[in-house]
Amino acid sequence: MGGRELLAEASVDYPFDPEQVGIDDGDVLDLLEPVFREWWVDEFGAFVPDNGGFFTPPQKEAIPLIHADENALICAPTGSGKTLASFSGIINELFARGRDGGLDNSVYCLYVSPLKSLANDIHRNLEVPLAGITDRLADRGEDVEIRHAIRHGDTDDAERQRMLSETPHILNTTPETLAILLNSPKFREKLRTVEYVIVDEIHSLAESKRGTHLSVSLERLEALADGSPTRIGCSATVEPLDAMAEFLVGRERPGGDPRDYEIVDARFVREFDIRLCCPTDDLIHTPREVVTGRFYDRLHGLVQDHTNTLVFTNTRSGAERVLHNLRERFDDYHEGNSGCHHGSLSKEKRGAVERRLKEGSLDVVTTSTSLELGIDMPHLDLVVQVGSPKSVAALLQRVGRAGHQLGETVTGRVFALDRDELVECAVMLRKAEEGFVDRVFVPENAQDVAAQHVYGMAINGPRRESEVRAILGRAYPYRNYSDADFETLMRYLTADYPGLEEKNVYAKVWRDTNDPPDGDHHYEAFPVGEPLIGKRGRLARVIYMTNIGTIPDSFTCDVYTRGDDQWVGNLDEEYLDTLEKGDVFVLGGDRYEYRYRRGSNVYVDPTSARPTVPSWFSERLPLSYDLGREILSFQRELLDRLAEGGTPAVRTWLREFPVDDDSVRAIARMFDQQVRYAGPESVSTDRRLAIEEEMDRESYERHYYVHSNYGRRFNDGFSRLLAYRVAQAANANVTVAVADNGFTLSMPLNRKVDVERLVRDIDPGEVRADLRESLDGTDLLQRYFRINATRALMILKRYKGYEKSASEQQVSSEMLLGFAEDLPEFAVIEETYREILEDKLNVAGIESVLRDIAAGEVAVEHYRVDTPTPRAFGLATLMASDVVLAADESRVLREFHERVVDEIDDGPPATATREGS
User: Fold this and answer.
1) How far apart are CA 385 and CA 749, in angstroms?
2) What is the number of other CB atoms lying within 10 angstroms of the CB of residue 338?
3) Is 635 strand, coil or helix?
4) By the 8 A CB rule, do 170 and 147 touch?
5) Banded pLDDT at 842 (limits 50, 70, 90)
6) Among the residues of 494-624, which ranges form H helices?
7) Residue 908 burial (CB count, 10 A)
8) What is the pLDDT of residues 391-419, one digit of tens each?
9) Cα 668 to Cα 276: distance, rounded to the nearest angstrom
10) Which long-range contacts (CB under 8 A, 24 or more apart) does 135-140 make?
11) Interhelix angle for 540-547 vs 447-459, to 10°?
């Protein structure tokens, strides 16, 4: 939102009467100081829609709440004026105080953003109301100034020093910088006067450890401030609202109720026009070049029909490829009117694209995820999504970037280029219409983040242990943090393990008044016998300030062939998380089998085997667990309609969805062929888990396709559990390939297991222990231990002027891992396993589904076929539908499909058998 755009962004035409909100515009205006009221009316009068008013629904509800110092979570789409609503009451109050007696040279309002670019954008946009009101007061002879500034990692030293002598009343910052300010001896005193905290895009923070870190920082600020700051959270479409509000406000005391809060729920006040498009109704037999050509023709037509178009793909390479192909195919696109934006580009290139987007001088921009949040793009009137964004929340966030102008409908088009994504996107768009939103899952009891904050509090001076413990417990992610958890943390921070210091891991804090460092007499201010915590080491503050934060460093690994050490290329280390010994991947057009990793070097063998892990695996977002469950419910309803009225009934029903006719026909045909070939029991639903067994006589392998449509995180964990049991039962090596809609287990054809029984025999109560055991010795464990050891300051990224690269950190962590695993209840090890199991492998979802199976609420259906069923085509090929289909994948799909059709024409497959439970 820049300049005038901020004002236009705040007045949008809504499809209902604003009076239904229950608050009159005049009542809200009366809350504003006369000078602010005049400015508001003058600026917004020209934007008043015929059926609206001076305020959008979120503004009408939020401004009175903030005026009354109520904590508030404001949920509304991008472009609905929620940011201006957050600042309006605060600016109004600050000007009133400035006129009444002046403001102190300190901070009154903190604005916290997940992105530097968003903080910069808001900082520029605050100039509009602040300058406008200041000028009006100056015309009356009054000299009132509300200072505002931005501070994050890019702020230079001179500007930081200037903030001490001329402190901004409104400070825009990031979670990491706030944590640093809380430990800055001079500037932290400037935070005692903070009365308001705005957390923008809170949903994007809450689901990661950045949000966990911020939640504890807010509780430390609460303890520091003279009063209890009013907390205001801004979010687009998010669920669950109460959990997000509680994350924002924290608790009055550990174990107590959340602080009071109000929710402004205006998530669905804008009109959306979103439709699913498919270039053909037959993605199997339509030639690849025809699918690609139709896609680009339709994309070109959409771009030409709109002013500014933003195209989201699911990978960075996809974003570059779409832009390249548009420029190659059409003379209308060139460097002057089109661009690409993603995280691998330089800051300068990204900044140039962002500036031109704000200006409206780019007809089309392609991106991956980097423009989901951030700057306002006032001229954007169309968003195109290529492939599935994997969650309703991501869909609404991306499409919501368009349509910021007055009365403008939010317009989005989603292109699906494979049949699995057709189903996924059809359900996603329908659920978006119905107001469904995927839940945000907040990491809980993260010991690495707790270590940083306890260390930081100790550095600020000896503190009562009970106070430190209480500050942690008041933060939402630590609401269930136990005394045993705290003791485990303190054993690590005090280095209370034999041999730990010999590994150069030293105590960071001391406990109890009986053991203060020599010469430190600050603790004498506390009563005798009061348990205290203080810092150890003269460099403690420097170590803390230069090493805190939660965003992990990453690096690329060099790939070598075994034996001759021939270098073949690089792999991102996140991609290595997905690889197990024996996995096959493509690099530089050739196929390699993964063998092992040493530090930053990966060793492989050339192979001709089919890839088991696609190249995009680590870059794409996983399907949300909640959406996966909705897809399973959809499939049950579709089967019911198919049984009752055949494909005509299915097509009639699907035309109620926001999808085009090609999509309707393609989806209906796929499920019809699935059922005719293998029966309705071959389709997983919310009441059935289908497991398909194929005997591939060409490769002499037996494949089990597990149709668990719960998302990649779930399937990554579930496949580990099942693969271990299959390997034990068959006494054979098992290869695993994981996707969002299921996974494949492959083993020699001459081995056979009762996979249906193995699934039913998994004890939900043993899942965590079994998964933990399965991680032993994996690269995944090594990487996450390095990340958590670095977060917990067990490994220092920066020390005495030297900075360790991520690969050097990895080497250090590999030297420590074996030792640390032998330590009882070691906090960093426990957190590593917790993060992998809970945050990465969705262990809670696995336990839930297995409990349903044990209770008989979900049946397990096992059946055998000679060729994969249509719903297994994707699992059988692990095709990557980014923008175009690979030629060899298309050929294999056609072969699969022709076999299925031949079987259907000849009647049910003779070898198909079923075993149900």
Assistant:
1) 41
2) 22
3) helix
4) yes
5) very high
6) 540-547, 573-576
7) 12
8) 999 999 899 888 765 567 889 999 998 89
9) 15
10) 136/35, 136/38, 136/39, 137/35, 137/95, 137/99
11) 140
